[in-house]
Amino acid sequence: MAEEGAAAATAEKIIHTYPLVRHSDMSEEMRTEAVELSVTACEKFSQNNELAARMVKESMDKKFGPAFHVVIGESYGFEITYECTTICYIYFGGNQAICIWKCS
C-alpha cells in the first residue's frame, strides 16, 4: 500500500527537458525556428525572461517579418487575437511556458 502511494507521488510531477509544443498552427519551417530560438533564449537567459522574449521576438521579426509578440514565464493565462498560421505555444524546462504569435 505504501509503495502505491510513493509511485503515484513521483508520477504526478514530470519535468520535461525538451521543448513540448502544446499548440501550433505555424508552418513546419516557422515552428522549427520558433522552438530552436525559444530553447536557445531560455538557456542563455535562464534568469531573465524579458531578455529571452526580446531575443526570440527580434529574431522572428528579422526572419518572418514584423509584429511578432512573445511571452515567456510561469503561471499565466492569455487570450489573444492572432493571424492564422502564426501561433506557437511551447513548454520548456518543466513549467516555463512560451507563447509566440503574430498580430499586425
From TrEMBL:
<dbReference type="InterPro" id="IPR001372">
    <property type="entry name" value="Dynein_light_chain_typ-1/2"/>
</dbReference>
<keyword id="KW-0505">Motor protein</keyword>
<comment type="similarity">
    <text>Belongs to the dynein light chain family.</text>
</comment>
<comment type="function">
    <text>Force generating protein of respiratory cilia. Produces force towards the minus ends of microtubules. Dynein has ATPase activity.</text>
</comment>
<comment type="subunit">
    <text>Consists of at least two heavy chains and a number of intermediate and light chains.</text>
</comment>
<keyword id="KW-0493">Microtubule</keyword>
<dbReference type="Pfam" id="PF01221">
    <property type="entry name" value="Dynein_light"/>
</dbReference>
<dbReference type="GO" id="GO:0007017">
    <property type="term" value="P:microtubule-based process"/>
</dbReference>
<dbReference type="GO" id="GO:0005874">
    <property type="term" value="C:microtubule"/>
</dbReference>
<keyword id="KW-0969">Cilium</keyword>
<dbReference type="GO" id="GO:0005930">
    <property type="term" value="C:axoneme"/>
</dbReference>
<dbReference type="GO" id="GO:0030286">
    <property type="term" value="C:dynein complex"/>
</dbReference>
<keyword id="KW-0243">Dynein</keyword>
<protein>
    <recommendedName>
        <fullName>Dynein light chain</fullName>
    </recommendedName>
</protein>
<keyword id="KW-0206">Cytoskeleton</keyword>
<keyword id="KW-0963">Cytoplasm</keyword>
<keyword id="KW-0966">Cell projection</keyword>
<dbReference type="InterPro" id="IPR037177">
    <property type="entry name" value="DLC_sf"/>
</dbReference>
